[in-house]
Known about the structure:
By secondary structure, this protein is α/β, with parallel strands linked by helices. It has helices spanning 8-13, 34-43, 46-50, 53-67, 80-87, 106-110, 122-135, 148-157, 165-173, 175-199, 216-233, 256-260, 275-282, 301-315, 335-348, and strands spanning 72-73, 89-92, 96-99, 141-146, 203-208, 237-238, 241-242, 245-249, 266-268, 287-292, 321-325.
Amino acid sequence: MTELKNDRLLRALLRQPVDATPVWVMRQAGRYLPEYRVIRERAGSFMDLCRNPELACEVTLQPVDRFGMDAAILFSDILTVPDAMGLGLYFTEGEGPRFQHPIRTEAAVRALGIPDPEQELGYVMQAVRTIRRELDGRVPLIGFSGSPWTLATYMVEGGSAKFFANTKAMMFERPDLMHHMLDILAQAVSAYLSAQIASGAQAVMIFDTWGGMLTTSDYREFSLRYMQRIVACLPREHEGRRVPVVLFTKGGAQWLEDIAASGCDGVGLDWTIDLDQARARIGSQVALQGNMDPCVLYASPRRIRTEVATILARYGSGEGHVFNLGHGVHPGIDPENVAALVEAVHELSPAYHR
Ligand code: CP3
């Protein structure tokens, strides 16, 4: 196995000293990059791109090559898992993801099975292996999955939703059925992430995009509990190194203590909490990943640099910080502004690591 030349991300997630704060951004490979749009065009569609390991590898490396990110994140989507469960994922222009067969009945829930990661999701594992080969130890590769709750919202709604009416109706009316679905999903995600780790993912992240839509008690019961179960199932060492796990609940700042107690190594933060407060609350237990408002990238490179400086100062000196946005980079962002962000983190952060 080739040696990892830049291991800042893995060290920071384990709260070990680094020379500079590692930086990557959610959705770093995406439509805001012209070179991504070229490859997506060549692939035909977004899902064809995900299913083509060579092209998925190429777009994964684009932001690493262009910006000098400290990590690569597997190019794929959280919805590949429900797709592999037979829901028939497709994307419509302007409307986002949709499922041909949403899960609306008890029979549909009971029929759900756990996909074999090396079969139905074999194209993802092949992409992981291809990316690791092409990265050649430059930076670590992050694997990922959606949280059971977040996957369930898409599966029940059949796509994106505003109020999660169908999902919440099932949760309130038939909690037993919802728990059955979440249990299947937790097993599916555990198998999927374990296979990503076995294939070469060096850290993994669970995206709980919609956990923040729940009440505190429902969050614990329907979202966090299942993420905790996954964390407990994952192999935490591979190739002689610890494989850190990051949990990201958008809108989860009020539950930081609960999230940090889940057994994860790092907590992803959206922009609604300041890093000094988050660090005071959970920074002695876990690393923190975040948390610039993605909309700062609509401002000038100068303003972006000031915001980076503010966020680095809020976290303060010492280990345990991975710089990121509080959510994904938007499609309309000028790549030069992402370059300004990365440059600012690399130039300004060493002062906090002396
Ligand atoms: O971060 C990365 O660069 C890795 C790739 C990645 C994608 N999706 C690629 C993608 C990751 C980590 C995801 C996660 C994902 N997908 C989440 C969780 C994170 C979050 O954003 O909250 C969710 C909720 C999804 C579901 C999803 N996929 C939606 C709602 C959409 C449509 C919205 C959009 O941006 O178009 C997608 C499509 C998608 N996934 C695109 C990309 C690059 C855009 C597809 C295109 O090329 O048109």
